[in-house]
Specification:
single chain, about 475 residues, alpha/beta, Inosine-uridine Nucleoside N-ribohydrolase, Chain A, Immunoglobulin-like, eight-stranded mixed β-sheet, four-stranded mixed β-sheet, 15 strands, about 30% helix, globular
């Protein structure tokens, strides 16, 4: 059986934005957070998610932490931003323990941190504080326009304009009109071609639509989100999550005793983690979607990751189109995967809280696929009826734990509804491409699971185009 070399396919059209990895795939993904963070006795949800994000500061290039409005406030009280600083202060007290996870002993200079960060690097508290900004303190499309720029909207423009090939993910934990203001200003000041270039660098993930207070949540026309989806439907990758945030809240609430045991009180970050009120960490799926764990390319929303499943379709406003899971059957499919992944997402968080508290804990296994380590998918064109070998030699667990490697097909992401026979012997996985798969796309997931405490996973996706 001959071994077929992996080749990266050229990028597909804009609205999926899939394609070959960046030149340096081990750079962190870039994220911006728009948060309506509030004191824990008012709305603990954002603060819980912010604590979790800080335990993953080595996995994301946190470009901006921008306070803005949401369901709980209009206007946004300036004093609420103190909750964000409280979490950063807790990070400052725990970061030396967290750094032991990647054997980091020091920080780069602040100037160096402003450049590109590699996976595994824990940023300094000073860097995080330098990325805090106030966004729009009022909700809705009505405050978009002249004389409404904010430090947050100006920062978004500067970040997009940086010479960086990586997309900039805008994760909306609250309302997104700070982003809308940035887009509006660019639209006024630049040519249509320059505006397109600006939009193409953006990826937007909204936790439902919170660009209004709770009582107005069905008034879609009030929201700047509708304006962005309507005016830039062909150029702005926009995800409207209406499934994962509900699952996160519900599953977290029903499992609260585990949060009380494994999260709350663990280190200074755990002490800053408030008890839930309405649900647990409803905003966390926005960055779970960008998690660089090899499960999917988040710029390809049809690939299913820790935040579930999305398809491009009509939104609940019945007017605009986006990547969404608002409607059946996609909402049910997404829920299926959210429930499947939830134990692993929790274990991953709990292990990181161990590091925050104790400076030691479990770490994820590493998949070496045909000599490469990457969190980007492998794209391969194969012939129907062919046989390919995949070599996992060199895969390892950094803690010396035993690791089980399995393959499974993510049928809801591909177009082949049959089965694929995969046999594993030693480090070689032999994949038999079905004859009847001709003309389809098959998504295979290599999953590595260790036997540490708690058990942790890692993944690598293969996308097979079958000729």
């Amino acid at each position: 059986m001959r071994k077929i070399l992996f080749t990266l396919l050229a990028a597909v059209p804009l609205l999926t934005m899939c394609g070959k990895p960046t030149a340096e795939p081990q750079l962190k993904p870039r994220i911006v957070v728009l948060t309506d963070i509030a004191p824990g006795n008012i709305e603990p949800d954002d603060m819980e998610s912010m604590v979790r994000l800080m335990t993953y500061a080595d996995q994301y290039e946190i470009e901006a932490l921008i306070t803005t409005t949401g369901w709980n406030c209009d206007p946004y009280p300036t004093s609420w931003a103190d909750s964000l600083h409280r979490v950063i202060n807790a990070y400052e007290m725990d970061v030396n323990n967290l750094m032991k996870r990647s054997e980091q002993t020091d920080f780069l200079t602040l100037e160096e941190e402003q450049g590109q960060q590699v996976l595994g690097y824990w940023p300094s508290p000073e860097y995080l504080r330098s990325r805090v900004a106030m966004g729009s303190q009022r909700s809705g499309i009505g405050v978009i326009g002249a004389d409404n720029d904010t430090p947050g909207s100006e920062l978004i423009i500067r970040l997009v304009d940086e010479e960086d090939d990586r997309p900039l993910w805008i994760t909306c934990w609250g309302g997104g009109n700070t982003l809308a203001q940035a887009i509006w200003k660019v639209q006024q000041e630049r040519s249509p071609e320059e505006l397109k270039e600006f939009l193409h660098k953006l990826r937007v993930y909204t936790i439902t639509d919170q660009d209004m207070v709770w009582a107005m949540r069905m008034d879609r026309a009030y929201s700047s989100h509708q304006w962005m989806r309507r005016e830039f439907a062909d150029d702005l990758l926009f995800i409207w999550d209406e499934s994962a945030w509900l699952s996160q809240n519900e599953l977290g609430s029903s499992s609260w005793d585990r949060y009380a045991e494994r999260i709350q009180g663990r280190g200074n970050l755990g002490k800053a983690y408030p008890t839930y009120k309405w649900g647990v960490e409803g905003d966390t799926p926005s960055f779970l979607n960008v998690m660089p764990n090899g499960l999917h390319d988040p710029s390809c929303p049809e690939q299913i990751g820790w935040a579930g499943c999305f398809r491009r379709g009509i939104c609940p406003d019945s007017l605009t189109v986006a990547w969404t899971n608002c409607n059946q059957p996609m909402k049910g499919i997404s829920r299926k995967y959210e429930e499947r992944f939830y134990p692993d997402t929790f274990n991953d968080f709990a292990a990181r809280m161990d590091w925050a508290a104790d400076g030691k804990g479990n770490r994820n296994p590493v998949i070496v696929l045909d000599g490469t380590v990457s969190y980007m998918p492998v794209y391969l064109t194969v012939a129907a009826g062919s046989v390919i070998n995949v070599d996992l030699t060199g895969s390892y667990d950094p803690d010396g734990d035993d690791v089980e490697y399995t393959w499974w097909m993510q049928g809801d992401a591909g177009t082949f509804d049959g089965g694929v026979n995969i046999q594993i012997k030693d480090n070689i996985s032999t994949i038999f491409i079905p004859v009847e798969a001709a003309g389809t796309e098959i998504h295979l997931i290599c999953e590595a699971r260790d036997n540490g405490e708690p058990s942790l996973v890692n993944y690598r996706r293969m996308v097979l185009t079958v000729n």
